[in-house]
Specification:
By secondary structure, the protein is an alpha/beta fold. The chain has three domains: 70 residues, no CATH class; 51 residues, no CATH class; 174 residues, von Willebrand factor, type A domain (Rossmann fold), CATH 3.40.50. Helix content is 34%, strand content 20%. The protein has nine helices and twelve strands. A six-stranded mixed sheet has the order 9-8-7-10-11-12, sandwiched between helices. It has a two-stranded antiparallel sheet with strand order 1-2. α2 packs across α4, α4 runs parallel beside α9 and α6 runs parallel beside α7.
């Protein structure tokens, strides 16, 4: 290994150590959300010292000698607008941004929160091209010609036809003798999962509550993507009516209507029945609200949908109640009381950002 590779490996280990050390802080902030790419996330690491030159006093003559005092700016007096504020005397903070694979970030999350690997439900067998060339066929490109098989066929034909001459052991393959390597299609297990992120966007859900939901959704998605090859995410917002939206609208839409939670549960149930059948999909609905519902009758409707329709079909249903100045928090109490003992229902109360890691652990810690 070249020295530069050793240095690079050592640097990555230092970075990983800093990320593990500060992971709890990242779990509670939105610092990473704007830096996420398709496969990587850019993470700022503010406490790594970068190598830099230190200049001493130049006691000898040479370049830079001439009129003027030490510290005097070159080119005369500074022009108006060249800078603002007084000069500081403290050392600046050195911030380094490094790109980390989302899969690697999920591994750190699993170790930090002690999350078990998920045993997928609803696996399906798919014919997938891949692997080694283990088959043989009678036609194909010359680059895949199987020399040994071709020669054996030609030798058999030569001997069977009486053309074999021990004094002149010459074997000339013809087109019918040729055999070619073939890549076989073989059934491979492939697990697919769908996440339903549902959020109350009524007037009682403020910006802070939505930020908490956004942070939780990022880490939940990161972990589940490391567990499934094929993952789809569906975003649903609701006030009195539920609808499917894109990711940007999910985190920025703000309504002022009332709250009818059953509308979101009915929409999820319809999508499960029409598109995401539990025989083929691992289903993870996550619902975020401040705990207010418009009536006790609608709460009873929600409980009935969960108990009779959704819970039998999903891997796990998670309800996260975000504390709000305007929310009563009653919905979580109603769910816990009405559906006590349901293993596939997990509820968590998030009072502030510091409660995000424990809520994530509650949601993902059962390995379903």
């Amino acid at each position: 290994m070249y020295r530069i590779e050793r240095d690079r490996t050592r640097f990555r280990e230092i970075v990983r150590g800093k990320l593990r050390q500060d992971l709890r802080r990242y779990l509670s902030t939105s610092e990473l959300l704007g830096r996420r790419g398709e496969h990587t996330v850019s993470i700022p690491i503010p406490q790594i010292e970068l190598p830099r030159f230190h200049f001493g006093e130049n006691k000898k003559g040479g370049v830079g000698q001439g009129p003027g005092e030490k510290g005097e700016p070159m080119g005369g007096e500074p022009k108006e607008g060249d800078g603002a504020g007084a000069a500081g005397e403290g050392e600046g903070q050195h911030i380094l941004e490094v790109e980390v694979e989302l899969e690697e970030l999920a591994e750190m999350l699993g170790k930090e929160l002690e999350l078990p690997d998920i045993q997928p439900r609803g696996d399906k067998q798919l014919l997938a091209e891949g692997g080694r060339f283990t088959g043989v066929r009678s036609h194909g490109p010359k680059s895949l010609r199987h020399f040994r098989r071709t020669f054996k066929n030609a030798l058999r034909r030569t001997i069977a036809s009486g053309e074999w001459d021990p004094a002149d052991p010459r074997v000339v393959p013809v087109a019918d003798d040729e055999r070619f390597r073939m890549q076989k299609s073989c059934p491979q297990p492939d697990s697919s999962a769908v996440i339903f992120h549902m959020m109350d966007v009524s007037g009682s859900m403020g910006r802070e509550q939505k930020d908490i939901v956004r942070i939780k959704a990022f880490w939940i998605d990161t972990w589940l993507r490391s567990q499934y090859k094929n993952l789809e995410v569906v975003y649903i917002v609701h006030d009195a009516v539920a609808k499917v939206v894109d990711q940007d609208a999910f985190f920025h839409l703000r309504e002022s209507g009332g709250t009818k939670i059953s509308s979101a549960y009915e929409l999820v149930l319809q999508l499960v029945l029409d598109k995401y059948r539990p025989e083929d999909w691992n289903i993870y609905p996550f619902h975020y609200s401040d705990g207010d519902n418009w009536s006790a009758r609608d709460t009873e409707r929600c409980v009935a949908i969960l108990r009779d329709e959704l819970l039998p079909r999903v891997n796990q249903f998670c309800y996260g109640q975000v504390k709000s100045a305007y929310g009563s928090g009653q919905f979580k109490k109603d769910l816990d009381q009405a559906l006590e003992g349901q293993e596939r229902l997990v509820t968590a109360a998030i009072n502030d950002r510091e409660g995000i890691p424990e809520a994530i652990r509650s949601f993902l810690g059962k390995g379903r």
